[in-house]
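for the writeup, i need someone to sanity check this before i put it in the appendix. the sequnce is what the collaborator sent (i think, or maybe the updated version? ugh). structure was predicted straight from it, no edits. if anything looks off just tell me and ill rerun, i have time this weekend
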Amino acid sequence: MLVQSPSTSFNEVDASSKKREIISLQKKIKLLSDSELTLKTEIKKLNSSLKTKDNEVETMKADKLLIDQLIAELQAEVKQVKQLLGYEREHRLITEKKASHLVRCMKMRQKQDALRLRAK
């Protein structure tokens, strides 16, 4: 029969305690490694999402430039159309005045012709 000395049993208890501590630390390492992997995956997803959003922003900026250019062109066209309408309005007024003047002249001529015919 083996007789254990007190130092041997203390060493065994100490070794058992160290083994439990190692196991506990290994579990923590595993959990932290899993967390690290999860975080790295999440970071990759976020970076990918960020790149996508950056591309969308660039596309929208380009679209905005095109839209701004189109708006400027349309505003210039509207200005030209308004100007043309103004010219046409002026032309119509002049034409109406001429027509009115011609009608008055024709009426006066008819009156004069009628007076001449009566005078004969």
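The mean pLDDT is 92. Residues 6-119 form the longest helix (114 residues).
thx in advance!!
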